[in-house]
Amino acid sequence: MPAQGSSLTLHASCVSFAGRGLLIRGASGSGKSALALQLMAYGADLVADDQVQIWQQGATVWAGPPAALSGLIEARNYGILTAAFVKDTAICAIVDLDEVEAERLPPLRYESILGQKIPAFRRVEGPHFAAALIQFLKSGCLDPDAKPHDTKL
C-alpha cells in the first residue's frame, strides 16, 4: 500500500477481474467470502478476504490485502483455503450484501469511499448474481455521467 493519501481498513472482501476491483461489503455471515469464491470460480482473482486495505492515489481508490491475510479465503464449513491473489486493484464497484435489490432495472447508485464516487450494487437473490457482477467487471466501469436506465416503453 502506498504511503501517500488517505487509507483505511474495512471488514469486507475484494476480488479483481481484468484489473477492475469489486469491494464486497456486508455484516458477518452475510456471504462475503462465499460470493468472492463464486466470482473466483468465474475467473476473478482474490484480492483480500475478511479485511481489505483501502487507499486513494489521485482520483482512484485502491484495495489490497493486509500482509497477514494475503492469499487466504474462508470457505464456510471447509476452513481457510489458500488462493493466488493480486496485491492491489482499482475499485470499480461496491456490492452491499446487507441490502436486497427489489427493482428489475434499478437506478444507477453510487457510494463515496475516500471522497470518490463508486458504482454500488445491492444483493440479488438468484443464481445469476455472480455472473452479472462478472459481466459488469468485464465491461468496465460505468461513466459517472451516464444516465439511468430509461424504463419507458
Question: If you had to describe this structure to a student in words, what would you say it looks like?
Answer:
The chain is mainly β and 153 residues long. It has a single domain, classed as Rossmann fold, CATH 3.40.50.300. It has helices at 32-41, 129-139, and strands at 7-10, 12-17, 20-25, 45-48, 52-57, 60-64, 72-75, 79-82, 89-100, 110-113, 116-123. The strands form 2 sheets. Strands 1, 2, 3, 4, 5, 6, 9, 10 and 11 form a 9-stranded mixed beta sheet that branches. A two-stranded antiparallel ribbon has the order 7-8. It is globular.
List keywords for this structure.
2 helices; nine-stranded mixed β-sheet; Rossmann fold; two-stranded antiparallel sheet; 14% helix; mainly beta
State the order of secondary-structure elements, H for helix, E for strand: EEEHEEEEEEEEH
Q: Biggest sheet, in brief?
A: 9 strands, mixed
CATH superfamily descriptor: P-loop containing nucleotide triphosphate hydrolases
**What's the CATH architecture name?**
3-Layer(aba) Sandwich
- Count of DSSP strands: 11
> What gross morphology would you assign?
globular
Estimate nothing, just give the exact number of structural domains: 1
* Helix count, DSSP H or I runs of 4 or more residues: 2
